[in-house]
Amino acid sequence: MRPIVLGLLASFFFSSTFILNQAMKLSGGNWMYSASLRFLFMLPLLLAIVLLRRGLRPLLSDMKRRPLPWFGWSFIGFGVMYTPTCIAAQYEPGWLIAGTWQVTVVAGLLLAPLFYRVSQTPDGPVKVRERIQGRSLAVSSLVLVGAATMQFSHANGFAARDLLLGVVPVLIGAFAYPLGNRKMMALCEGRLDAYQRVLGMTIGSTPLWIVLAVAGYSQDGLPSPAQAGQALIVAVSSGVIATVLFFAATDMARGSAGKLAAVEATQSGEVIFAATGELLLLPVPVPPALSWVGMFIVIAGLTLHSLRTGLQQRAAAASSSPSGSEEVPKRSARSAAMTAGDGEIR
């Protein structure tokens, strides 16, 4: 029960991204500051965590050996992920962005052919291109149905341009996030832990955040104290607290594929937390009934996807274990958590 509680708490803190981005928009804050300040504030926080874990030197050494992949995939995984999300917040409420964002699960499945796995053959290890899992994609398509339902309920009375600028950026970010994160995981090959990798990607994307901060200053001057404070809250709650809670939950569940899948499913709570938080904290209208239907369809799709992933891991572990045990190896469980949920930073 404890891993589930921690997973739900993580999704609660992750949802702050969507709520506070909306708050910054309503207060007239420049979206460039909303995007850049969050990561600029995260940098010293993550640096302190990695220093305490004595992981800074190997990270910097790895980045020095391969700077182009680090900066390139960090730009995609963090920059192309978060910048469009902040743009979308100018045109749609946070709860709708949170629901649409969950299509990242489907995006991760569709991106599978861009990655390889090592397969053992009589002639030695061979790289095999991953394939799109049709059954998992069919189950996860419920997320698309739910997101489309939410967008449809929101479409009435809104200009097509606003809908386009609210949907397309989120979809771009939803594909960039698993692409950048998984490419970086492959690049690190297990040499660095998740905290080191997140810090490295934050460092690698910093040039973009500096450019956006300078552009925001040229437009509006310095950010207001309120916007700076809200960005700091997002950095702490979503970038640090939620990350630590999610990793703790996956660590507790790493010996059981079923428990791990249940922890991943808790991340669907972001949709409800974002909607509830906006209604309680911000002057926004109550989502129409059809939107709530769409939210629950999204949650159902994410839950079924996680449960199916758990069953697949359990079957694979049982078939590979000489004793037929259902225990999931530690490294396999951690890898599954990162690739299925990518619960590092939102």
Automatic annotation (TrEMBL):
**Swiss-Prot/TrEMBL keywords:** Membrane, Transmembrane, Transmembrane helix
Instruction: Locate the transmembrane regions by residue number.
Output: 31-52, 73-91, 97-116, 136-152, 158-177, 198-217, 229-249
Q: Which InterPro entries match?
A: EmrE
Give positions of region: Disordered: 315-346
Pfam family name, one: EmrE
Renumbered to this chain, the Low complexity biased-composition regions fall at: 315-325
**Carries keyword Mitochondrion?**
no
Protein's UniProt name = Multidrug resistance efflux transporter family protein
Q: Which organism is it from?
A: Cohnella lubricantis
